[in-house]
Amino acid sequence: MAEQETLSRTTGATVLTLVVVACAAGLADALRRRVRVRRRTRNHPGAEPTAMHTHHGAPVIPRQRVTGPSAETVRLTEAERDAFAVLVRRLAEGD
Prior knowledge:
This protein has helices at residues 2-43, 78-93. The protein is mainly α.
């Protein structure tokens, strides 16, 4: 059991360390951006602070298309409409 406890403690400590490092890096980045915005507004009186876009070089998910494919329509005959209505009723009743 001592070996298993040691392994779980080591794993837990490693995960905790990685989380702390990630949080510290995020905090440092946020503070660095804040300082850049303050410097920019100090050099230009009356300018409002704006968010800066920094390119990290990481791949990004492409944007979705604004328009999707055109809607397809199928014209049904009267018999097909009736059959479809019966099917929908059966499914709604739980048969």
